[in-house]
Amino acid sequence: MAESAIFVWEGKDKQGKKSKGEISSTNPAIAKAELRRQGIVATKVRKKAAGLSLTGGGKPKPADIALFTRQMATMMRAGVPLVQAFDIVADGLDKPKVGDLIRAVRNDVSGGSSFAGALRRHPIYFDDLFCNLVDAGEQSGALETMLDRIATYKEKTESLKAKVRKAMTYPIAVLVIAFIVSGILLIKVVPQFQDVFAGFGAELPAFTLLVIGISDFAQKWWFMVIVGIAGAISGFTFLHRRSKGLREAMDKLMLKAPIAGNIIEKSSIARFARTLSTTFAAGVPLVDALNSVAGAAGNSVYTNAVYKVRDDVSTGQQLNFSMKATGVFPNMVIQMVAIGEEAGALDDMLDKSASYYEEQVDNAVDNLTALMEPMIMAVLGVLVGGLIIAMYLPIFQLGAVVGG
After folding, report:
1. How far is CA 402 from CA 203, 315, 398, in A?
2. What is the pLDDT of residues 64-105, one digit of tens each?
3. pLDDT the model gives residue 200
4. 240 forms bridges with which residues in the sheet?
């Protein structure tokens, strides 16, 4: 079977307008036939040249999808036809693989597929929530409004994720830096002092002996220590991906962690409120919307709670009572939901709750960052200072003896 390749084409669409793009095929003839099936008369079809890209050719990331959605919403609001909007957005991107993805969607749409149907062919980049919202926009005839709403949702969600990652990365960075600095001192610096101490002929302080012992261990087994740490991390990652019980246990543990637990809890509540607000405002039935919300919660404790809420709501119970019964949602959110249900403005109340908790996460991350900066200096100071003191204690003692 012939291997498929990417072909660059130029031609005219059904309206006779000049168009261009890329298509995957085994040879130019089959590519032309596929384009003809899509209503495009190709004048040029050539194999795309392989080469290095200096503009960032990695796989499309969620931030790229958010940017694509925002640009599509802007183009459609300006009255640009859907297929032409794809071309404009794809040509304006710096990442070739993101452009390839958009052109693939564009080719499906120009071939007669719905926008949501074209997106569903790329589930890695467009999840069920995204596709369902686009489908709702197409069905209601308000696609540009829905794209704007999805873009706002994606932007706020990605911003929230970035803040949480920042909060989690900072303590890990401190530990890694401390580990590296200590390793260098133990393996490279302490042995130099050992040679000096060998000629003293006196008993060394206990603290110095402890550090020398750790140094000897580090010199002999440093490679095994690194392999062991790497193996432990890899093993944990493997089990975390495959064990639902481990994931749930870790999620519960993370919620109880000092400082970080508060950030994770508030971010999960913000994502719950933001996702439910967006889906409910799009006209998605509440029970169906809660299915999408559960997948976007980001923590298994809240995922399980949302599924419990969905089951209760499907039996006719009010949303705020169902949320209260789970015991994981704060009273403020429950009261806002109750007001929204009473006033018929649930999406608006959820949006306000999401904005409040997003701001809370932002403030918590800023506070954590401000707290960690002096902590970094303190941790490194204790480690480096402790090692230096351990090495100079025998010299101080020798000086005291000589002076006496």
Report:
1. 15, 87, 6
2. 888 888 888 888 888 888 888 888 888 777 778 888 888 888
3. 63
4. none
* End-to-end Cα, the chain, rounded Å: 91
Residue 158's Cβ-side half-sphere holds a number of Cα atoms within 13 Å equal to 14
Instruction: Compute the distance between CA of residue 282 and CA of residue 314 in angstroms, rounded to an integer.
Output: 19
Residue 52, pLDDT > 50, answer no
Give every strand in the sheet of 18-25, ordered side by side: 18-25, 5-12, 41-47
Largest CA distance in the chain: 102
The first and second tokens of residue 148, run together, are: 């704007």
Give tens-digit pLDDT for 164-176: 777 777 777 777 8
* pTM of this prediction exceeds 0.85: no
Contacts of 228 (CB under 8 A, 6+ apart): none
Token couple for 175: 């530990």
Q: In the numeric block, which tokens belong to residue 245?
A: 């019980």
Task: Match 């941790």 to its residue by tokens.
Answer: 379
Which amino acid is residue 287, in one-letter code? V
Torsion sign over Cα 158, 164, 165, 166: positive
